[in-house]
Amino acid sequence: MVTLAEVARHAGVSASTVSYVLSGKRPISDLTRRRVRASIEQLGYQPHAGARALASSRSRIIALMVPLRTDMYVPVMLEIAVAVATTARARGYDVLLLTGEEGPSALRRVTGSGLAEAVILMDVQLDDGRLPVLRAAAPPAVLVGLPADPAGLNCVDLDFAAAGALCVEHLAGLGHREIAVVGGSPGVYARHTGFAERTLGGLRERAGRLGVGLLHRPCDGSHDAVAGVLARILDERPGVSAFVVQNETAVEPLLALLRRTGRAVPEDVSVVAVCPEAVAAQASVPLTSVAIPAQELGRRAVERLFARLTGPGGPDATGVELLTPVLTVRASSGPPPSRRLTG
Amino acid sequence: MVTLAEVARHAGVSASTVSYVLSGKRPISDLTRRRVRASIEQLGYQPHAGARALASSRSRIIALMVPLRTDMYVPVMLEIAVAVATTARARGYDVLLLTGEEGPSALRRVTGSGLAEAVILMDVQLDDGRLPVLRAAAPPAVLVGLPADPAGLNCVDLDFAAAGALCVEHLAGLGHREIAVVGGSPGVYARHTGFAERTLGGLRERAGRLGVGLLHRPCDGSHDAVAGVLARILDERPGVSAFVVQNETAVEPLLALLRRTGRAVPEDVSVVAVCPEAVAAQASVPLTSVAIPAQELGRRAVERLFARLTGPGGPDATGVELLTPVLTVRASSGPPPSRRLTG
DNA sequence: GGGCAATATCGAAGCGCTTCGACTCGTGGC
DNA sequence: GCCACGAGTCGAAGCGCTTCGATATTGCCC
């Protein structure tokens, strides 16, 4: 392995000079810089990461904690993770992958050992076990998601409450009076995952305000589960003319079932989803949807982290950033049958 | 931050003693060990990762390179990644997440800088640009996937050729004489991704051997793409009575389309998939399938890495390990209509 | 033309850990 | 009763890098 000292010798300068060429923290003459650069090139020098971290107390690594569970929409998770990795790399940082399995102690471990300078947490619960660790050790951190009490924390998320409201608004505007919500999987609610409850809150609030009926049912993504939930919904509320789907894996089963039971979309029932654009656009009926901007979330999370890492510092970098949801109208929503007849 | 020296002072021993308590590389009396452990506990000591890596030249980190692309089945990728992380953690290692974006140079960077001791590569192409780097720098590495020339490399993968053969065998055994393959997305073939071509090879070989007709069409996962491919297949080969699906996102669209065009599964056509168990079991018709053992792949990859890292060393740890595919019969396959009539 | 800023470079002191050699004790063999 | 030896511990020398003074070397102002 080539060391900085060897580069220095090769270039005929001192070790510190090479270091300054690399970091740019002190002025170096053009000639020297060139010579050093050439030596680095020729010798194929790579600074030793550990030595760097030790001397500078900066590891240039951020930890990303992803959930183990698979009852959330997995592609969204991966997309966020990849966006985090890509954005971090662009800033010269690497990403350490932590699974939820190890729990809060993993946070303590990687920040306490100086392995990671900062952390990004995904799949945040309303009352998340990792939060006490964050508040105690206070490493730079960003949550993708919103806990019940975000005070003093740095959070980024889609404004799911607004997303829910947007869905109801769109459907109510078309004339629907009874809306059913095919929610996330039961486990998501059991864990009090923030986004699910906030969406529901938004849906309810707006439905209440607009005087629209709203029925909510958690639902797994399997075909059978969707069939069961759909049957119950139609049984309890025959007047339902629109669905809001939050569990993306339930989208296709729902469409298939509606089709099979002779309900045309959007002529007989409308469907609006909260899901990634790709899912909405590729569905068997292109879906009117509120996009989950996974990439944007990952990117913003990293950017907030760096704002805190390199920025003015202090607690002023905390706070909640909620991305404004956007509803894109596609083929799956339209006026309810009643309106069509009279329209 | 608490250092080893402080622990030593607190416990009334020398720094090296603390180190040996931690590593167990030299005998330490029970009494001393206890005292040191207590001090570590009380002070909340965490060894500094960088210092450790520097002194021992072992970072206890392995790098995992995941593809950026999204035309492969994403949940499989995430599941492998999570399995890798979990298994590595159980051995005291952390996982660094690299995206394909940076290309081969990322490999050089993380191994050259001592950041990662070893690498695991996913989404291996038949002629992968990262292989030259591996052969040149020769860091401990395991590929999840199989390149065209695996000589000197350490590979783990499902035996996709056998998987393909298994599908054909199962269907031929049921009496099918014309089989259509709904393949992976065109991009997968364009990149010469190993698993796709090997599956196809296995399918063709066995079909040839058994005198069964085989028609292969690459296919994206979108509903429209599947519809197009299905129409063409049925047009070209009206006698097709069975489908093998390799692109998991195409599964539901295919089932929906068959249903809609009045073809019952498995009465009129059989469907066999190569996909994760979860997808097969949760499909609208539970699918006869060859499982893609994502977790097992991740675990085996890490285990091979450690065998090489801590084991006897030398090139004897290279080689290819192909997991034997298992076909599980579910509801989606049965005899072709012709057989049923006469049976 | 003496002094004073930059500018450019060097040497040395760590960063916190691992590891090697050396030292001090018992203990058992003979 | 002496030697050899293993068990248990310590001190010191790095690992490769950053960074903080110093030390030249240059202009440039008045």
TrEMBL record, chains A, B:
It comes from the Bacteria. Keywords: DNA-binding, Transcription, Transcription regulation. PROSITE patterns: HTH_LACI_1 (PS00356), HTH_LACI_2 (PS50932). Residues 2-56 form the HTH lacI-type domain. SMART domains: HTH_LACI. InterPro entries: HTH_LacI, LacI/GalR-like_sensor, Lambda_DNA-bd_dom_sf, Peripla_BP_I. SUPFAM superfamilies: lambda repressor-like DNA-binding domains, Periplasmic binding protein-like I. PANTHER family: LACI-RELATED TRANSCRIPTIONAL REPRESSOR, LACTOSE OPERON REPRESSOR. This is LacI family transcriptional regulator. The lineage of its organism: Bacteria, Bacillati, Actinomycetota, Actinomycetes, Kitasatosporales.
